[in-house]
Write a structure and sequence with these properties.
704 residues; alpha/beta; 24 helices; 30 strands; Rossmann fold; flat; 4 domains; binds magnesium ion; binds adenosine-5'-diphosphate; Dna Ligase, domain 1
């Protein structure tokens, strides 16, 4: 897609407003009104066959009547006129359309056909289109100044691009952002995304020098694979923050595996965003809190934070929130303490958080912040001020802004009860300084996201590892299962399939009678496990179908007969054989699994395994492409990490081996999209890489 083709939409030299209106408050009035008020730098052409003049401007009866080049046409006519208007624009050589009009896909029925026809016209003439059913677009660049959004408040100029899938939320947020001092570079409400998608805009803004940060309000992902590719690239240069609404169910998915049962809600979205470096926030409020910090503060170099406050309580709240987010509060060094003691009252606290106490003056703030900043011990500052008669909070704010800027440190403010301090400072110095929040937690939350961004960006990007595999054998195995009319692989077939991709399995064999079982056990030498196999026996231990720690020939024979007895009483089940398996001891059980997400494809899972996996729900998810870095992070992202690292004298399990198995499974499910679900539960994780062995596996194929 050519950037130039989007330029005619976002950097037009002339705009026709088709459906401009004299009626105050109508859409056609408001759009033209905003374009004029925001001082659009190009030419404006109101179009309406029923008026000669609108807003003191000559009004044209049609687009074709305009005796000049038109780059962009904004359509605010009723839906039944949209297609004719679009065709006229095409004939005129218009480069881009913004279709505000509703009445398309979103209404179903006739609307769907109408949208299809509209898109065909747009493509026929080589135009590009935002919408239909959108709230407009915005570019605040000084040489453009296009406010073609149906919102009452004018936007501030800034470096933040914002994409909204919801028109109403977009317009409301532009107004809210202005009151927070957050300025936009560009904005688009993409409506039904008939032509221009979110991905197109991410690509466009990724290359826009006026955009340093990309915000998104999303309800769905059009093309997750393109999104991943784009976002991985863009986030290396610019942060991307997203609010993803609609925690939709993943559709009707037969969840016969643990992985399927656990992959509820929108874990795929979380996984995908996480893997491509896009940071997800939970609310629109948080989105703006975080954006305000990114918009005008440098990215912190590390996670060490210094706090300066004039009140104990908020200082402690900030410190608690910092620690909870994994940020650090390095203690003040003796030299710094001596320096602070010389300038601060005797009662001040000289440790971090530095408490200047209630008598703090602007001078105290300035001196303390400068002293902290120059130590080099802190990567970011949080300045907390509860206004008192001892100072003007705006003076404190500006002193902090100057000191932090001098030191090149990011600074976030908490000005409790001083709502207008940032705005006053802006009035005095003519520019936006640092964000000021009402509460410490908001400041810490924003700082935490910045630190996270910095750390992600500095990491080496991962790569997909290619292992040697026997995909031909795997193909034959799958074909055999299909040929027998099944979609479920039995335990032994699952084991053999995984073996084609080098997944290590405990030594096992299938016995059809007690003698064969005894013989297999003899070959394995040492204690064995017997597992009932057969139709209706997929959750073996629930049915008493797993016998562990059997020793000696007689014990194994007895075990076999015991399983025969037990399985005979299970309704709708038939014992078809018994897996005789070596006993794996001294291991911690983990689960490695995969289930399919209808939109995102294979979804890998890792977590603490065993029979309680669905109770503990301590699992992590990732999507493909799955890199070595993803594997590295995935095995370390579960709550049970300390158990894997070893507690009470246990040695750490071999993480590298776990990562390798995950990568091998990722390769298998990538090569065979017909694998609908896969569970390895448990994989015995051991400190010894040669003893990290799968002991149970289930594979289900998609229905044909
Ligand atoms: P299912 O999941 O169908 O109940 P599994 O084969 O996973 O059956 O076995 C259940 C449990 O038995 C495992 O979680 C594990 O604790 C234990 N177990 C199974 N196989 C072995 C083995 N080879 N070595 C040691 N323990 C095992
Ligand atoms: Mg199991």
């Amino acid at each position: 897609m050519q950037a130039a083709s989007l330029d005619r939409l976002f950097r037009p030299k002339s705009i026709a407003v088709v459906g401009a209106s004299r009626r105050k408050g109508s859409l056609g009035w408001q759009i033209l009104h905003n374009l004029i008020l925001f001082e659009f730098q190009g030419k404006l052409f109101p179009v309406n066959p029923g008026a000669d003049v609108i807003h003191s401007m000559k009004c044209y009866p049609s687009v074709s009547a305009i005796d000049d080049v038109v780059d962009l046409a904004i359509l605010v006519v009723p839906s039944k006129f949209v297609i004719a208007a679009a065709r006229e624009c095409g004939e005129k050589g218009v480069g881009g359309l913004v279709v505000i009009s509703a009445g398309f896909n979103e209404i179903g029925g006739d609307g769907v056909a109408r949208e299809k026809e509209l898109l065909a016209v747009v493509q026929e003439y080589g135009m590009r289109m935002v919408g239909p059913n959108c709230m407009g677009i915005l570019n605040t660049a000084p040489d453009v100044r296009m406010d073609a959004v149906f919102a009452e408040r004018l936007p501030l100029h800034g470096n933040v691009a914002f994409l909204s899938q919801s028109g109403a939320i977009g317009a409301a947020l532009i107004e809210h952002a202005a009151s927070l001092g957050l300025g936009f570079s560009q904005f688009a409400s993409i409506g039904n995304k008939a032509d221009i998608s979110g991905n197109d805009l991410i690509e466009y803004w990724g290359r826009d020098p006026g955009t340093d940060l990309i915000l998104m309000y999303l309800e769905s992902f059009g093309n997750p694979r393109n999104f991943t590719k784009l976002a991985r690239r863009v986030t290396r240069e610019k942060p991307m923050l997203v609010v993803k609404a609609g925690r939709t169910a993943l559709g009707a998915r037969a969840a016969s595996s643990h992985t399927g049962a656990l992959a509820g809600a929108d874990v795929a979205v979380d996984a995908l965003l996480d893997q491509c470096g896009v940071q997800r926030v939970n609310s629109v409020e948080e989105l703006f809190d975080v954006a305000r910090a990114f918009a005008n503060q440098p990215i912190p170099r590390g996670r060490r934070v210094g706090i300066v406050t004039n009140a104990g309580g908020p200082g402690i709240l900030a410190a608690d929130a910092l620690v909870a987010r994994g940020l650090e509060l390095p203690e003040t060094r003796p030299e710094l303490r001596a320096e602070l003691a010389a300038i601060l009252p005797e009662e001040a606290t000289l440790t971090n958080p530095v408490d200047l106490i209630g008598s703090a003056t602007t001078g105290h703030y300035r001196a303390a912040i400068e002293a902290l900043a120059k130590t080099g011990d802190y990567d970011a500052l949080i300045v907390i001020c509860v206004p008192t008669v001892m100072h003007d909070p705006t003076d404190v704010y500006l002193a902090a802004a100057d000191a932090a800027e001098q030191a090149g440190l990011p600074c976030l403010g908490v000005f409790m009860g001083a709502d207008d301090v940032r705005e006053r400072a802006r009035e005095r110095t003519g520019r936006e300084r640092f964000p000021a929040y009402h509460f410490p937690e908001s400041a810490v939350g924003a700082l935490g996201m910045m630190v996270e961004y910095a750390e992600r960006r500095s990491r080496v990007p991962g790569k997909v590892i290619e292992f040697e595999d026997d995909s031909d054998l795997a193909k034959r195995l799958i074909a055999d299962v299909r040929a027998s009319g099944r979609t479920e692989l039995d335990l032994d077939e699952s084991r053999r399939l995984l073996a084609c991709y080098g997944v290590p399995f405990a030594r096992s064999g299938v016995a059809r009678d007690a003698d064969a079982a005894a013989q297999l056990a003899g070959e394995i030498a040492g204690p064995v496990v017997l597992k009932a196999m057969g139709a209706g026996l997929s959750h073996k231990s629930d049915l008493g179908g797993v016998l562990v720690g059997l020793d000696g020939e007689e014990g194994v024979r007895e075990g076999y007969r015991e399983l025969e007895d037990r399985m005979a009483s299970v309704p709708n089940a038939r014992l078809e054989g018994v897996l005789v398996q070596e006993m794996v001891t001294d291991a911690r059980e983990v689960i490695i699994g995969m289930s399919h997400d209808p939109a995102f494809g294979p979804l890998l899972m890792f977590g603490l395994g065993g029979i309680y996996v669905e109770v503990l729900k301590d699992v992590a998810f990732r999507v493909l492409p799955f890199t070595d870095r993803d594997a590295h992070e995935m095995v370390r992202s579960v709550r049970a990490l300390p158990i894997l690292e070893g507690v009470r004298g246990n040695a750490p399990v071999c993480f590298e081996k776990l990562e390798e198995v995950l990568l091998r499974v990722a390769q298998l499910v990538r090569d065979f999209p017909e694998i609908a679900e896969l569970d390895i539960n448990p994989l015995m994780a051991s400190p010894d890489p040669t003893r990290c062995l799968a002991v149970d596996a289930r594979v289900r194929l998609s229905a044909l």
